């Protein structure tokens, strides 16, 4: 073969290896298909006051009587303050920043986000009872036949809000937990009821997983308990995720002692509960079964490590219809990737979403936290002094060059797969920003993939991906 053709020939032959699953593996979205439609939270002025750090929840909702709907995003605010308060570093100064919900209005402008609910309209600070809208769901109540958007909070008094239209002024507080638990991690519909998962997780000045997680159910009229004892294990301090699959309601727990558990309950004829996975699946350090998704007839479940304290990557399991399960990403995983997609700092598998036939998985990379500490070392020392001596020096934030992020490819990852087993990266560096530390939420709507990226320093970002080949 002549030297003239050798280069293109080698490139063509190595293309399947680069893409991971064959020549068509390069299809699907790539990093160049994404356009940013929100940064600094929703806007710099609002972020400066309320610290819009996480796009905690995202849902596309079409009200009754409307042909089209909007993408709604609920914020998670003041996350760094919240974590520092939980660790006892801020004491009485650890307050909760009030969250809000906005909806994307591309009809009014490419970066227009209309505010539809703001906690400041319902509570007077500084002691707000919520810091984020952690989950959204839509549910049609059999009592009145109305389809509504439900949004659940995280904070001193976890609550469920709802609206029939999504419009400003149309929201009502439907139900709340009044005995000091941390958050409503998930709501999901199963057999005509809306189930509500309670997690006793981080709140300012509180503890983590100190009492059993619970599950409630509602018909849109009344609310009642379904499971209140962590499936009989007091160390199951959180119900982190739920999903309806194969005729059963499934739930994943948070457990810092022996690792997460996955149960199925409320099956045909009221069967259950039945434990399917125990002891963190591959090892006890897999503390939380956080992200569940059904793809191609199988149930996928991603894990997380609380606060990334053990420097261990997340795992991804596949549960089959016969309740057997396989490790996809993790030790001896079918994908060939060890935990965290071979990155131990990918401590969270934070989101899963099908889009145009592909399954996308988003991670949170704790390299970003390390970069933040390096960049703000003076402030970190001042915070430590303040926690110990009750005072802090007036030190300016000094952001150093992102050396850690550049060297380690810091920033949240997005991966894609066409079969749930073979995975290739879309991006592994927070779309070029080390501080974009995790892909928190995703929604597939009308050929577009909306991706919400958490950033506790500069405010979250929303990106929109659309296949440029179409």
Radius of gyration: 22 Å
The count of DSSP E runs of length 2 or more, i.e. the number of strands, is 28
**What would you call the structural class?**
mainly beta
Helix content: 10-25%
Q: Could you tell me the mean pLDDT?
A: 86
Shape: globular
Number of helices: 6
CATH homologous superfamily annotation: YVTN repeat-like/Quinoprotein amine dehydrogenase
Low-confidence stretches: 1-25, 383-407
Instruction: Report the CATH architecture.
Output: 7 Propeller
By CATH, the topology is Methylamine Dehydrogenase, Chain H
**Strand residue percentage:** 35-45%
CATH classification class:
Mainly Beta
Tally the structural domains. Answer: 1
User: Looking across the biggest beta sheet, what order are the strands in?
Assistant: 1-28-27-26
> Biggest sheet, in brief?
4 strands, antiparallel
Distance between the termini: 36 Å
Structural summary, described in words:
With 470 residues, the chain is mainly beta. The chain has one domain (19-465): 7 Propeller (Methylamine Dehydrogenase, Chain H). Helices cover 13% and strands 38% of the residues. The chain has six helices and 28 strands. The strands form seven sheets. Strands 1-28-27-26 form a four-stranded antiparallel beta sheet, with no helix packed on it. Strands 2-3-4-5 form a four-stranded antiparallel beta sheet. A four-stranded antiparallel beta sheet has the order 6-7-8-9, with no helix packed on it.
